[in-house]
Amino acid sequence: MRETNKVFHLAIPCKDLDETVDFYEKLGCKLARRYDDRVTFDFFGDQVVCHLSPDNIDDEPKMYPRHYGVTFLDKDEYNQALEFAISKDLPFFGKPMVRFKNRKEEHLTFFLIDPANNLLEFKYYHDNSMVY
Fold first, then answer.
1. Is 21 left (phi over 0), alpha (psi -120 to 50) or beta?
2. Average pLDDT in the 86-91 region?
3. Taxonomically, which superkingdom (predicted)?
4. CA dist 15 → 33, 58, 69, 86, 117 (Å)
5. Cα(20)–Cα(15) distance, rounded to whole angstroms?
């Protein structure tokens, strides 16, 4: 069980620090630190570090096997995030969709793509027992 004294940490590649900061700040993430080779964000309460690594960018990103994001426990918060992404004209990777329709694990989801082709998934399960 997660406790409030723990923060998840994720490190990902980026190709340009300025465009990375612009994207994540538009998304609503707070820039915590910036160095010559990386930037660190408060990503919805967790830590995402984007390391300058232009030679490690996926040319043709796919949803699977690699992406990360936020699972909302409240449908209104999911809908607000979707509307926010649309209003900020953030780049979507495909259209918002329903996954596993009519199954217990059915969920709403949308993907964004950052400037380094990292995919971010935002989702909401109708049945919260399916979150884990």
1. alpha
2. 97
3. Bacteria
4. 17, 10, 20, 24, 9
5. 8
Confidence band, pLDDT 50/70/90 cuts, at residue 6? confident
The whole-angstrom separation of Cα 83 and Cα 87 is: 6
**CA-CA distance, 96 to 21, in Å (whole number)?**
24
Task: Give the Å distances, CA to CA, from 128 to 72, 100, 105, 118, 132.
Answer: 9, 15, 9, 26, 9
Q: What is this structure's pTM?
A: 0.92
> Is 69 inside any structural domain?
yes
- Which CA distances in Å does 31 have to 25, 47, 54, 72, 106? 7, 10, 20, 22, 33
CA distances 88 to 45, 82, 121, 132, Å, are 21, 10, 16, 30
Q: Is residue 113 a part of any domain in this protein?
A: yes
Structural domain of residue 25, as residue ranges? 9-130
Number of structural domains found in the chain = 1
What one-letter code names the amino acid at 80? Q
- The pLDDT confidence band at residue 5, using thresholds 50, 70 and 90, is confident
| 92 inside domain | yes
